[in-house]
Amino acid sequence: MRQARECLRRANFEHAEHLLRRIIAQDPREGQAYELLGKLLYRDFRSAEAAAVYRAWLQASPADPVAAHLVSSTSGENQPPRSSNGFIESVFGRAAPDFDATLTTLNYRAPQLLFESAMAILDPSVVGLEILDLGCGTGLCAQWFRPLASRIVGVDLAPEMLAQARARGCYDELICEEITAFATRCSQRFDLITAADVLCYFGDLSVLLEAVASLLYPGGLFVYSVEELPSELSSSIHRNGYELLEHGRYAHSAPYLRRVMNHVGLPAVVVSQAVLRLERGSPVRGLLSSARRPGVVR
After folding, report:
1. Of 287, 212, 279, which is closest to residue 257 (Cα–Cα)?
2. What is the pLDDT of residues 121-149, one digit of tens each?
3. How far apart are the C-alpha atoms of 287 and 256, rounded to whole Å?
4. What backbone torsions phi and psi does residue 288 show, to the nearest 5 degrees?
């Protein structure tokens, strides 16, 4: 595996593919080889081959949550309403050490875009906010929002990501928990809640967003990003307004966001389009949404 990873790092993709296929042939239960090979094939627009790799992986390891998720995303069958805890913990736990460096190469902009969206609505002189960062990861959002805060709480499911966030030094409290479970049980209230590139691991947003709405003070603001559902899918018959796409993340339509936000009592102030990052050399198009809980800002 080490030699295959080095080939990938050096962009020697042909030899990396050869090594990964050889590893799988020697040990059909080597999950990381399947995952890296599938990502390599996806990168080269060889989607059918990537899907076959994931199916072979699931057949060899039926209990693997990453294999199960990627088979659902590439086949379109048995799509879950959200990514499983096992998938999130596995993928982001392993990604944590190189996470920030990887996102830098992809021109990742979601935290900055959310900050700009919030500042377009908040009083420019605002300070002393109680802020909740859902799916905080390594703490990239907190870097932007810390000057506005009297207190920032970060929540994430992957302990390895929280270790990186702790080292960044921007949070007053870090909690290792699935964000829906946290939002449902939490008794604290917040002036501002952020979720940067987190809701792309949820399809149906209604349960989570209803819980989020209850955590805001009256007049409190929620800002978040999602990937935008391609128009050819959002206009198809029998679509719910979201879809699990082949890369393993969910995408949502703007009408769906407005509908679910109104349903949970957080009418959207703004839903705008933006480029969140690059993938396979092309822009990943997203939606930025800002919504206030009705009431007077404290």
Report:
1. 287
2. 998 888 999 999 999 999 999 999 999 99
3. 11
4. -105, 130
Q: At what angle are helices 254-263 and 206-215 packed, to 10 degrees?
A: 50
Are 242 and 229 spatial neighbours (Cβ–Cβ below 8 Å)?
yes
Residue 209 is which amino acid?
Answer: L
Q: Give me the residues of the chain with pLDDT under 50, please.
A: 237-238
Q: What's the pLDDT tens digit per position in 153-205?
A: 999 999 999 999 999 999 999 999 999 999 999 999 999 999 999 999 999 99
Q: Is the pTM of this model over 0.70?
A: yes
Residue 165 in tokens: 């966030």
Residues 6+ apart with CB under 8 A from 169: none
* 254 contacts: CB under 8 Å, gap ≥ 6: 228, 271, 287
Question: Which structural domains are found in the chain, ordered by start?
Answer: 2-78 (1.25.40.10), 102-292 (3.40.50.150)
Token output for 101: 């460096």
CB within 8 Å of 235: residues ≥ 6 apart: none
The answer to whether 111 touches 138, Cβ cutoff 8 Å, is no
Structure tokens, 36: 């890296």
Task: Give the contacts of 208 (CB within 8 A, at least 6 positions apart).
Answer: 179, 180, 183, 199, 202
Can you tell me the distance from the alpha carbon of 209 to that of 199, in angstroms, rounded to the nearest whole number? 10
Give residue 268's Cα distance to chain centre.
20
- Between CA 90 and CA 39, with CA 87 as vertex, the angle to 5 degrees is 80
Q: Strands (DSSP E) along the chain, which ranges?
A: 129-134, 149-156, 173-176, 190-195, 216-228, 242-244, 250-252, 268-279, 282-292
User: What's the residue count for the chain?
Assistant: 298
The CA-atom distances, in angstroms, between 165 and each of 49, 95, 100, 156, 181 are 36, 13, 11, 10, 20
**How far is 156 from 93, CA to CA, in rounded Å?**
11
